[in-house]
Amino acid sequence: MSQNGETGQVRDQVRQAADAIRSRHTATPRLGLILGSGLGRYADTFRKKTVIPYDELPHFPRPGAPGHRGDLVLGEAEGIPAVALQGRVHRYEGYTMAQVAFPVRVLWSLGIRQLIVTNAAGGISPQFSPGDLMLITDHMNLMGGNPLVGINIDEFGPRFPDMSEAYSPAMREIVLRAAAEHGITLRQGVYAALTGPAYETPAEIRMCRILGADAVGMSTVPEVIVANHMGIAVLGISCITNMAAGMLPRKLSHADSP
Ligand code: HPA
After folding, report:
1. For ligand 1, is residue 200 a contact (CB within 6 Å)?
2. Pick from 40, 14, 178: which is nearest to 101 by CA?
């Protein structure tokens, strides 16, 4: 297929998925959430809820990773019309970076202009401990790809999108204030994304640390690039589930949950 054909196809797929969602829930969501490993249950608290399994939506990628449900949940979060992705797909499952980020394009098409992304990550900063929450200040794309590779879809955004405020300073400010008000300790730092699925070696973690990363994971970056392309303001929070390889004298297992 020609590049123009592929562009048209992606546009059509986004429209078809968004139409399928709108046919089942008429309120326009303003806020999107991507709920990573173990955090999916937050969307269960939505009011006036519509739950749509991904396999009832055209072109939606299906999550295979443990701990990732595959439901789209629409409703009200604290009175705000919202839509949540309960579970995401990852590059390591064999999806392309663009397929991983496809649902974000659909959420934008539904109307969101703010996105909250969460993930599980390994701690690199020696100041971190498992259980910490880290507000993502910036990221490093070490996944060896970019979801915007290919002909640009001008309706979605510019060829060369700015990434200098990939994580909205205004949204970060609000969250820092809220955390302080509620006595919640919130770390801050840079998230480095690698493809996985193998955990990193201690040498790779030393490399990430020298480069300036505070946490490491296998997700989030494709979605955040696509969100920035479309002018969506992003807030990111990592849950530090383990210290990254070589930071402690122990091995990693799936219990550390990417
Ligand atoms: N490395 C990569 N991804 C992860 C980790 C890790 O140590 N922990 C949770 N997700």
Report:
1. yes
2. 14
CB 242 less than 6 A from any atom of ligand 1:
yes
Task: Tell me which of 36 and 95 has the higher pLDDT.
Answer: 95
**CA 171 to CA 211: how far, in whole Å?**
25
- Is ligand 1 within 6 A of the CB of residue 36? no
Interval between CA 196 and ligand 1 midpoint (Å): 9
Q: Specify burial of residue 41 (Cβ count, 10 A radius: 0-12, 13-18, 19+).
A: exposed
Q: Answer yes or no: is the C-beta of 33 below 6 A from any ligand 1 atom.
A: no
Distant-in-sequence, close-in-space partners of 218: CB < 8 Å, separation ≥ 6? 90, 91, 92, 193, 194, 195, 196, 197, 258
Taking a C-beta distance cutoff of 8 angstroms, is the pair 226, 104 a contact? yes
Buried b / exposed e across 92-122, counting CB within 10 Å, b at 16+? Answer: bbebebbbbbbbbbbbbbbbbebbbbbbbbb
φ and ψ at 115, to 5 degrees? Answer: -135, 130
158-177 pLDDT, tens digit each:
999 999 999 999 999 999 99
Give me the residue label for tokens 């993502």.
Answer: 136
Contact 52, 71 (CB under 8 A): yes
Question: 251 pLDDT band (50/70/90 cuts)?
Answer: low
Q: What is the mean pLDDT of the chain?
A: 93
* pLDDT value for 68: 59
